[in-house]
Amino acid sequence: MRFDLPLVPTERAAWTVALLAPVALVIAAAAPGAWVIAPIAAVALLVLMLLDAWMAGEVQDWRVDAPGDTEVGEPLAISVSGRFAGSVTPRRIEAAIEADPRLGGDGRMQFDLRADGPSGSFAGTHRATPVRRGTGTIGRAWLRWHGPLGLGVRQVQRELDLAVRIWPDLSPVRSRDLQTFLRNAQLGLIARRLRGEGSQFEALSEYEPGMDRRWIDWKASARHTRLYARENEAERNNQIVFAFDCGQAMCEPVDGLPRIDRAVSAALTCAYVALKGGDRVALFGFAQRPGLMTPFISETRAFPRLQSAAAGLDYHTTEPNFTLAMAQLTSKLRRRSMVVLFSDFTDPTAAELMVESLGRLVRHHVVLFVTIADSEIEQFVHAAPADLTTLARSVTADTLARQRALVLERLRRLGVDVVEAPWRQIGPQLIDRYFAIKRHEAIG
Fold first, then answer.
1. Residue 337 host element (H or E)
2. Same domain, 179 and 326
3. For a tag on the chain, would you pick the N or C end, based on fewer CB atoms within 10 A?
4. pLDDT tens profile 412-442
5. Helix or strand or coil: residue 431?
6. Positive or negative CA dihedral for 203, 440, 444, 183?
7. Hey, is 135 helix, strand or coil?
């Protein structure tokens, strides 16, 4: 641990010197014999600055605190606190922190501190917003405080070794709406048998008006001379794979966070719901070559393993290799599964290989393609044509939007289910589509 105590001038001292310089020139021109006044004034100002910095007091102890874990996109509180020797508390105290750019603010944080509690104590908190998953480090911190005249400051520096692990955002999983839904839904927080839908026979019951006529068991009805309906148990233990394109397009930001992070948050929310429903969930990530592939888990108590694995999905600046990735994924799936692919594309040419690969995958599995709607393109399309530049940008955006719609339509014709929505609605729409697919027994 090392404390440096340099005494440095403030901005006020610099402006004072700048204002006194013309005065010195006037004195030198009007009375050359009085030139000695200028160096005397400079020395006096220097002494005054040093005296002011000395009167600011000396810091006795200070520290920087940050939580060891946080979630991407969620506020992160970084606090600085300490105490000055004696009862001196400078009128202005500033802190500066050098950190990993993952923690936001381009890695630079600067904020003011205030007197706190007993005389001589100070504290302050800066709220950063992590912009990428991974491990962010806080490397160095500076503390500076002003003297009573505002001409001199003292400054100390400290080397830090603080690591902050940035996890995927799980705020949708913790939300009250989702927890209330899980508590009241049929799949519930308590395991129960789902009767009345599905394909596994459970029991016969007498047919009542309002029941689906497709479930009438005609043979049993003929034997008992009255109508009986089959009650089936919904299938559990379905395999759900959440596949993530970690390529260049998915690393582009949307409302401050990369698309891949928005996708991971929606996928983990749906995975939590699927685990509550008795299904098995796995994660798969790829870019230029396949990467992450987790084993299937079937219990909610193992959900942190999914969160930890999702935190390891890296960001890549290369184009994804869909052919290789889908081929490897197919080789690892031993039974019909539901594959939820999060991806994006910029033009039909870049999406051609993706369409071909999903066309082969959908022959053996249920494929759900999830993409985040590009709000920026929509804004350009509907922008008022105030000038030629705006008009040209609007026409280009409209062309891109039409090409995007054509690719999504091709996927639908291949049998791929498509979800396209703003990032805030991706999670709820994905859960709704999962329930619809499960209700129709399309997976097993």
1. none
2. yes
3. N
4. 999 999 999 999 999 999 999 998 888 777 7
5. helix
6. negative
7. strand
Backbone angles phi, psi at 259, to 5 degrees: -60, -35
Q: What is the pLDDT of residues 67-114, one digit of tens each?
A: 999 999 999 999 999 888 766 667 788 899 999 999 987 888 999 888
Phi, then psi, of 398 in degrees rounded to 5: -65, -40
pTM: 0.76
If we measure between CA atoms, which residue out of 106, 113, 148 comes closest to residue 131?
Answer: 106
Q: At what angle do helices 259-276 and 303-311 cross, to 10 degrees?
A: 170
Q: State how many domains the chain has.
A: 3
Determine contact, residues 242/340, Cβ cutoff 8 Å: yes
Closest CA to 244 of 129, 353, 380, 344: 344
Q: Tell me, yes or no, whether 386 and 354 share the same domain.
A: yes
Residues 109 and 228 occupy one common structural domain: no
How far, in Å, CA of 285 to CA of 329, rounded?
10
Q: Does residue 94 contact residue 85 with C-beta atoms inside 8 Å?
A: no
> What's phi and psi for 21, nearest 5 deg?
-60, -45
194 CB contacts (<8 Å, ≥6 apart)? 186, 187, 233, 234
Q: Could you write out the three-class secondary structure of 307-322?
A: HHHHHCCCCCCCCCCH
Looking at the structure, tell me whether residues 106 and 10 fall in a common domain: yes
Residue 280's CB is within 10 A of a number of other CB atoms, namely: 18
The residue whose two tokens read 């309906």 is 229
225 and 160 within one domain: no
The answer to whether residues 294 and 429 belong to one domain is yes
Does 433 lie in the same domain as 401? yes
**Residue range of the domain that includes 220:** 195-233
**CA distance linking residue 169 with residue 192, whole number of Å:** 29
